[in-house]
Amino acid sequence: MNKYNPHSIIDKPWNKYLPFIKFCLIGETNVAISYTIYYILSIFGINYLLANTIVYIMGISNGMIQI
Q: What is the pTM assigned to this prediction?
């Protein structure tokens, strides 16, 4: 009896690239969140060095949460 699974052909390539796709999506959300927070902090007149430090810390936090 042949236990051929037609979905195994489709699942293998997708599962191979799934970590890379997840990595790209997390990176894109980090960039969007970082630019948004930096823009908001610059509107409030916060020094760019302090704003950049806050954005950096929040970007790291966001990346760790999404893993």
A: 0.69
